[in-house]
Amino acid sequence: MHQLFKIGFLDINMQFNIGFLSSNMQICHGKDSSSKTGRKNILFRKIVIAGVSATMMMGATSAFADFKAESPQCIAPSNPGGGWDFICRTTAKYLFDLGIIEDSMQVTNMSGGGGGVAFAHVTKERDDDNNLIVAASMSTSARIAQGIYENATQDDVHFLATFGAEYGAIAVRADSPYQTLADMMDDILKDPRSVGIAGGSSVGSFDHIKPMLVAREAGMEDVTQLKYVSFDGGGEAMTGLLSGATEALSGDFSEMLGFLESGDIRIVGIMAPERLKNYPDIPTAKELGYDVVGANWRGLYMPAGSSDEAKEFWSNAIKTLTENPEFQAELEAAAIAPFNNFGDDMYNFVAGSIADVEKLSREIGIIK
After folding, report:
1. According to its UniProt record, which protein family does this protein belong to (predicted)?
2. CA angle (225 as vertex; 224, 231 as ends), nearest 5
3. The pTM is what?
4. What is the CATH number of the domain that holds 318?
């Protein structure tokens, strides 16, 4: 059975040209035979560079001129240590370091309901808050698609942007008897309740869907029988694995990376189309015979009732982050690839993601 899991039009192999100036721009630095001409060339270069810098600053200033963030806050809809927490803390750090916001951004962890507690808090209590942004991902759109956020629609919040995406993976403890993904699937096929799989979000989430797809590829007819153990965030799910509460962990690669490098876990399969360049020893689920590719986007939303000026400010702020080399390096270190959507592109992307998850959830029996 062939199963290729792609969300919307997500392709995280896309390359983005980041930065204001092309690296191919050539400015003559050679020594002129005439010192007078050489001085003119130096002066010309300084004028050009100054002019470009002024243009960049004017563009940035005009982008943020109509709104000023005051006591900004980012809500991570999980406990510390997971992907949503990473989104907020990384965003908050670079917004402040780059001078985009004058006040440091407060990061608040608000776990519960697979992000539902935070979603309800925003829509019911802070719908017009101009200074609030919230971490979002594939799991956010999945819960809207599956009706887990009660009566929620895409338009209940304003989806700001995606700025990255990463592949899902399945991990076991370093001392686990499961040496391969096939070993684990064999036991699951014999007794679906014998292998507990931890995930950092609720039943029906992307962390739940990923092993269900692998199990279906392995030949499991009713994948809803899979033993999935939900936790409030990737950090708690990792604790569940390491403590022995579960036999495996389903999550995103960035959440596992530190524990992989410390030797606490092994990754038995990553849901990428090919092996990762920086981690060539990790096999893909696809090469092991489970034709599943699952990528999770990372981004942010804000209250739907916030002002147009605030929405433009935060959209421009995130765009500025994506153009910053240090921010991109931080994402790369976490194995998160560039994947940028703003404005209408973002709206259409989330709409496509919700439609895809609803279709897939019906196919595998999560919703009827």
Report:
1. Belongs to the UPF0065 (bug) family.
2. 80
3. 0.74
4. 3.40.190.150
Q: With beta carbons less than 8 A apart as the criterion, state whether 65 and 78 touch.
A: no
Strand 157-173, strand 341-342: pairing: antiparallel
User: Could you please report the per-residue DSSP string of 248-279?
Assistant: EEEEEHHHHHHHHHTTSEEEEEE-SSS-BTTB
Rounded CA-CA distance 276/295 in Å is 13
β partners of residue 270: 169, 284
What confidence tens digit (pLDDT) does each residue in 178-191 have?
A: 999 999 999 999 99
d(CA 331, CA 163): 9
CA-to-CA separations, 246 to 128, 181, 232, in angstroms, rounded: 41, 15, 15
| Listed residue (168, 166, 238) closest to 200, CA to CA | 238
CA distances, 202 to each of 116, 198, 234 (Å):
10, 10, 11
Is residue 112 helix, strand or coil? coil
CA-CA distance, 294 to 353, in Å (whole number)? Answer: 12
Residue 294 domain-assigned (yes or no): no
Beta-carbon contacts of 304 under 8 Å, excluding residues fewer than 6 positions away, are 123, 127, 155, 156, 157, 158
Number of domains in the chain: 2
Q: What is the pLDDT of residues 223-244, one digit of tens each?
A: 999 999 999 888 999 999 999 9
145 and 87 assigned to the same domain: yes
Query: Which candidate, 138, 166, 168, 137, places its Cα nearest to that of 284?
Result: 168
Task: Please give the backbone phi and psi of residue 228, each rounded to the nearest 5 degrees, phi first.
Answer: -105, 130
- Cβ-count burial 333-357 (b if 16+ within 10 Å, e if not): ebbbbbbbbbeeebeebbeebbebb
Residue 131 near residue 302 (C-beta atoms within 8 A): no
* Distance in angstroms (rounded) separating the CA atoms of residues 336 and 30: 40
Q: Is there a domain that residue 308 lies in?
A: yes
